[in-house]
Design brief:
350 residues; alpha/beta; Collagenase (Catalytic Domain); 17 strands; 25% strand; hydrolase; metal-binding
């Protein structure tokens, strides 16, 4: 399989704490003495936090090293901002979080991996903007039914599990059908690539609708991933503080390589939505297909990442969607291949 890694735009790489002239300039891994502890033993004042470790407000991933020692700057409970305004609250319960946003002009990802055993946090931030006109690196889109590219995230749900999710209706009076259809499309590998309209066998993971909830997805009014609450929620949410181009955001919490919770919010502030063709209606100009967007976001919930490159734009997990575009509601070959790589095939008796 062609496992396509995200493009390098916005990615921050490189190690922090390069070799320094004195032992007090850097925290040492493996249980060695930290700079502050060494200074205290020497009768000196503890080392000051790095300049980028401001005591108040959100911190910017681009201004920080990729790996951060908790002894130098404890980010737990703090908000970190990645590319294109995407942000997440660093978990304080030992879990990690990945935030995704789908925009009218591209997509973004921010991953915050917390390793309390090592006493460090690793940040990964990427962002893609769709250029105006025909970009220099443009490659003609492949047939989605032949394109086997996919990208996996670092965590997934246990194979064979049934994931319960709740629907949040929000306050805009928008229908549930687009959201529920999108969730079902991804779990059941719906496609237009064959007469059955589904890839077979489906992945070995299932969904169960657990009813409507009055609790919104765990995203703030600014579109920031908040603290998890143990419930998977997908639905409509007004996020007036998010950037204007944001269509939807998904926050996925994980421990080690195991996903433990995921929430998806479709933006109602300033956006027009169409439930999708399954309702027998046509798309009003300038509206976005809720089923297509939810199918894409459910891919993130299950552990699929963005597949970048214009040649892969026919896949559900491509990092862009246009108004009235219902193609992402049906999976391409690579989308299905990614699910099978993550979960294997569901048995016929399941």
């Amino acid at each position: 399989m062609d496992d396509v890694s995200p493009a390098g735009r916005g990615r921050r790489t490189g190690a922090w704490c390069a070799a320094a002239a004195t032992a007090l300039s850097c925290t040492v891994t493996g249980g060695a003495i930290t700079a502050g502890a060494a200074a205290a033993r020497a009768g000196e004042a503890p080392a000051r936090p790095p300049g980028w470790c401001r005591p108040d407000g959100a911190l910017t991933a681009r201004a920080m090293p990729q790996k951060i020692r908790l002894s130098e700057c404890d980010l737990r409970g703090r908000v970190v901002r990645g590319e294109n305004g995407l942000a997440a609250t660093v978990p304080s319960d030992g879990t990690s979080v990945t935030a995704h946003s789908l925009r009218t002009d591209g997509a973004s990802e921010l991953r915050v991996e917390v390793d309390e055993a090592k006493g460090e946090i690793t940040l990964t931030s990427t962002g893609t903007r769709v250029p105006q006109g025909r970009p220099r690196e443009f490659r003609a889109p492949m047939d989605a039914c032949q394109d086997d590219a996919y990208q996996q995230e670092p965590s997934r749900w246990p194979k064979g599990s049934t994931i319960e999710w709740h629907y949040y209706p929000g306050t805009a009076g928008l229908p549930m059908s687009g959201v529920s259809t999108g969730v079902s499309n991804m779990f059941n590998a719906r496609t237009d690539c064959n007469a059955a309209h589904a890839f077979a066998p489906p992945p070995d993971v299932s969904e169960k609708y657990a009813g409507q909830t009055t609790t919104s997805p765990n995203l703030t009014a600014g579109g920031v991933c908040g603290d998890r609450d143990g419930t998977n929620v997908s639905g409509w949410e007004s996020m007036p503080g998010a950037e204007a181009n944001v269509l939807a955001a998904t926050c996925t919490w994980f421990r080690g390589a195991t996903t433990i919770e995921s929430d998806t919010a479709l933006q109602t502030q300033g956006k027009k939505w169409w439930p999708g063709p399954q309702d027998g209606s046509s798309c009003p100009a300038g509206s976005y297909d809720a089923a297509a967007v939810t199918t894409h976001e459910t891919g993130h919930m299950l552990g699929l990442g963005h597949v970048e490159g214009s040649q892969h734009s026919g896949l559900t997990m491509a990092p862009t969607v246009a108004a009235c575009d219902d193609d992402p509601a049906t999976l391409g070959r690579g989308d299905y291949a990614g699910l099978i790589a993550l979960y294997g095939a569901r048995s016929s008796s399941a």
